[in-house]
Amino acid sequence: MKYQRVRGMQDLLPEDQPYWAHVEKACHDLAGRYGFERLEAPVLESTDLFVRGVGDATDIVSKEMYSFVDKGEDALTLRPEFTAGVMRAYIENGMGSRPQPQKLYSFGPIFRRERPAKGRYRQFYQFNAEVIGTPDALADLEIMQIAHGLYSRLGFTNLVFQLNSTGDPECKPRFIQALRDYFTPLMDRLAPLDRERLAKNPLRVLDTKERETLPLLADAPRFVDYLNAACAEHFAELRAYLDDAGIRYEINHRLVRGLDYYTKTVFELWGEGLGAQGALCGGGRYDGLIEALGGAPTPGVGFATGIERIIMSMRELGVQPAPLPRPDVFIAHLGPAAKRVAVQLAAQLRAEGTGVRVAFGARSLKAQMKDADRAGCALALLIGDDEVRDGTVTARDLAHSEQATLARADAAGWIRAHLP
Ligand code: AMP
Questions:
Q1: What percent of the chain has pLDDT over 90?
Q2: In this structure, are residues 66 and 109 in contact, taking their beta carbons and an 8 Å threshold?
Q3: Which residue puts its alpha carbon closest to atom 18 of ligand 1?
Q4: Which residue in 112, 227, 272, 367 is a FRET match for 313, CA 20 to 30 A apart?
Q5: pTM, whole model, 2 decimals?
Q6: Domain covering 14-171+227-316 in this structure, CATH number
């Protein structure tokens, strides 16, 4: 084979599509019901947008972006996440002067140059939802509810949020200083990667996976102890709403999330049905992001979830999505004149909205009937020399082995009467 898929990329084959349609429909339905409107930004954005919007100390920006210089002119990147592009679109399209908040969602491919593994791809799909323009903790709740609603609708169980607050520009620096003060004397015992993180992005030491560092985390400072009054109040309000809604959560002091732009709420949703892939999805609040990207100060909160991992779990759990629509009627023909009549009849029936499949080639009736069966058609119309001469078709109900010869003009009526 000369050509192969690019490493970490996937082909989504016809047999995969019922799963995709099922999950996509759940996303669109749920988003609509919660009052979210769809916004699709382009896959390509300026590299600088992600450097500013996600942060160059993050793995995504420092290691995982597909970036290139377009014909020696513009530095462009295939989006490695949705939020920065949605915020750019919000600012650029003046959406701040529409009624606030704006509730927006997106569904599409994301690109990250990660090490490929089971459930980890370099092109994958995300469903992303954002509430932009309100600091209300109710917006945080709604984002968490839509995430929770999606996973419960898709059959996941034991859903529990991991929840933390990462403060605001006033209290965050105090917490970061406390982290520095705590880890600096322990520097020798930190994993090399975490020594680097401590210098560049100390929060990331908290969600480390490095074995040497893990035991040092037990006594590390906790963000909740450093929140100022406004952040503490926001956090308490959100917890009260979650309690009222009966949504389970645990405070996770190690949860900071990878992206720089989070303020206040950060969360991940954990649940059953996903092997060792970790969180089902994550998100949080990013009150400073729009301003950092050149817009007016505007609060926002959002989440994103990966579609491939949902589908992987559905398959593991044996969840069967509904089959996709396909043609109901198969038209078989014997001889060139019959084939021409078949093509005309197919066009006419399709124009009326009936799904039709016409046999290709010139094969025996038996072979054509086998195709009809394989294609899952419930009804077949047969045209041979007699039918051409008489202006008729022979109509066969495949499931009930019934057959009738009728005027061609009556075929549509017969189909309507016999569709399962
Ligand atoms: P993140 O934007 O990193 O918070 O990721 C949000 C969700 O996207 C994760 O919970 C996963 O479901 C999914 N995801 C992230 N990276 C990948 C990847 N490389 N391949 C497949 N899914 C991914």
A1: 86
A2: no
A3: 120
A4: 112
A5: 0.91
A6: 3.30.930.10
